[in-house]
Each structure stands twice: as C-alpha cells, then as structure tokens.
Amino acid sequence: MPRYSTRWTRLALAAAALLALLVFVSAQDYYKILGLTRSATKQQIKKAYKKLSMKYHPDKRPGDEEAEKKFIEIGEAYDALNDDESRRIYDNYGAEGLKKHRQGQDAGGHHGFHNPFDIFEQFFGGAFGGGGGGGGRRHYHQQQKRGADIVVQLYVSLEDLYNGKEIDYDISKYVVCPKCRGSGADHPDDVTTCPVCGGHGVRVVKQMIAPGFYQQFQTTCEECGGKGKVYKSKCSHCSGHKVVRGNDQLSVTIERGLRDAQVLTYEREADQHPDHIPGDIKFVINTLPHDLFTRPSNSDDLHMDLELTLEQALVGFSVNITHLDGRNVTIARKSAITPPGHKMTMTGEGMPKHGAAHETGDLIVTCSLNFPKHIDEKAGGTIKKLFASGNIA
C-alpha cells in the first residue's frame, strides 16, 4: 500500500509541475501579449507594439500599476519577436530559452531584455519618457525640441469616403539607428562625458563690457553641441548621425463621411531623432473624381446629372443607377413633363455625415434633355398632328 501511495504522490507532483509549466508558458506567450498569431509578419508585430505601447504607457495612465506591468510585458514581447534571431530561439525554446541565450551573451548576467522605456523611446524617437538606470524611468523636465511635421496628400475615392476603409500607407522617414540606439557611437563604452562642459551641455562665458565690468552668460557647448556627451568613434551603421532612413507602414482610417481637405493627424509618427520629439504625420484628404457623382465642398449632399431622351422628358421615366455602396437606386418621375434643368431631391441618398454616420445628406439630380439629331418626315408629321390636336399644351 505505501508503494502505491508513493507512486500517486509522484504522479500528483508531476501533474502539478506540468500545470505550473503550462501556466508559466502561458504567461510568457509573447504572441498572445501582442494579440498576434505565430505566423505574424514583422510589420504586424511593429503595428501591434505601436498600438499597445501607446495605450498602456504609464505617462498616459499615471498611478496605474497594472498598466505599467502591461507596458513592461508588451516591451518584452516586442523585444523578443522583432529581432529575427531572438524570435527563432523563442519559437523553438520559449521565453526561458531566450533568456538563457541572452544571459550567455551578456557579461553582466541580467535577464538580457532591454529596458521597456528605452525600447519605447527608440521606437517613437523620444516621445513620452524613457528608460533610466536600474530599470527605472526618466522624465524630461525641460521642454523638448519637436521635429517637423510631415504632410501627405492622400487621394481617396468617393466610394471609400462613403463606405469607410482602412488604408495601409508606406512612408519613408528617419528612424533611430538600431545599432547604436541613437548614441552615434560605435560602442557604448565610446560615449564619454564632454571634457569641455563637464556634461552640462553649456559653458559659462565671461565677457568684459566695460573696463572693470564683466558679464557672465551661458552658451551652448561647441564641443558636444549641448548634449553633454561626446563619442570617440562613429557608429558604423549611421556614421554618427544617430538616425537612418527607414520605412514604416501606417494604418490610415478613412471614416465614413470625411470631407475633402480634412486632415488626419497621427501624432509623433514623423522623423525620429533621439534629441527631439517627432513631429506629426498629417494626411490631407483629396477626393478623386467620380464618373457619376460630385460632392460640393463642405457638404454632405451628392450631385449628379441625368440626361433624358425627349420621350422620357415628355411622358415620364424610371431610371436605375448604382450607388457608391453598390445598391440600385431608382430615380423616377411618372406622367409629368420634365423641363431641362429640373432638379429632383432624393432624400437620404447623399453622403453619410462624418461623426454621425446614421445621418445622411441628399442626392440632388439635375435633369438635362438630349434632343434627337434627326426626325424623318413621317415622324415630323405625327408630331405636328399631336400639337394641332390640342392634347399638348
């Protein structure tokens, strides 16, 4: 009996260990943390990190410990999956295998993952806060310089403005150098405190303004350019410029009812640089011409011209058109004469109102008349008799 008891005890311990392992693996599922599948592309990984890191950044949720914990998990997941080699190791050996691999490469012996605030700062080029020593955070108390905005003329079809659409837009911009992480140096040990200003970024200059009278003022240090740091060697990837040219893909949301010349602003998505906050990317909506409909400026109405035959103008008509969402819409005028220039209002068949898509403008139809180019003698005689009969006034 004791033998069976020992056996069941071992099985129970093994089951508990397996359950603990499964819980651990689940907690370290980097794909799940980013809301992705294992087949996710690198662009999808970047897109997910960008969205989630902005959502859970502690500066957006001050005092929310759960948000900060989530932010750290998101940074660790991105750090593991964005690098091809790290992702290969993670896919084969899991998070623990990746940590052991990085420990083997790291003389310091820590877990090998980068500070999540440093990852965020590198990704967004200095936005919000950044990583500090010992895994903490640093905030910028001085007003940071801001980079220039990028303005993009975005040409959109009237169909997309009517129905709404997500457009993936590739944009070329400067990004923080992935090799030196924005230091400009070929190796971290090559970055030293500026010997001229002592790391302050400014020098105190004393100038005589009159015999026996001196004025002191501060000026930006010429040696370090105000950064307080100098480097002995230039980064081999960016040549010391701290940034390199790169491509990024933005998912631009075309909401229903957007108007021509409206501006969609994507904050801090412009050129990156470690020394300033990125500017915004601004997409200016430009409506492409449509074969049937036109949309006046600052209006939710649609306009169209409808050309009628002489018969339709005299005895009425029923015409089907294809709307911007593919529906058939019937325009009809029964038993009535339609003069050239006559306008018909199709209530609710215009553009959706931006921000209130359940409300719509109207479709204004302007009728024109296509006179026949030739009438034979017999038809002409028949028309004369109709007018002479007094049935046509």
Describe the structure.
30% of the residues lie in helices and 28% in strands. It has helices at 2-27, 30-33, 42-56, 65-82, 84-105, 116-124, 158-163, 310-315, 377-388; strands at residues 130-131, 137-138, 150-156, 165-176, 191-193, 202-210, 213-220, 229-231, 243-254, 263-266, 281-287, 302-309, 316-322, 328-334, 343-346, 352-353, 356-360, 363-370. The strands form 8 sheets. It has a 3-stranded mixed β-sheet. A hairpin with a 5-residue loop joins strand 1 (130-131) and strand 2 (137-138). The longest helix has 26 residues, at 2-27. The termini are far apart.
Strand % is 25-35%
- Distance between the ends: 115 Å
Oligomeric grouping of the chains: single chain
Structural category: alpha+beta
Task: Give the low-confidence spans.
Answer: 1-5, 13-27, 107-111, 127-142
Mean pLDDT: 82
Please bin the fraction of helical residues: 25-40%
Largest pleated sheet: 3 strands, mixed
Please give the number of β-strands.
18
Q: What is the global morphology?
A: elongated
How many whole angstroms does the radius of gyration measure?
Answer: 34 Å
Main-sheet strand order equals: 3-11-10
**What's the total helix number?**
9
- The H-and-E topology, N to C, reads as HHHHHHEEEHEEEEEEEEEHEEEEEEH
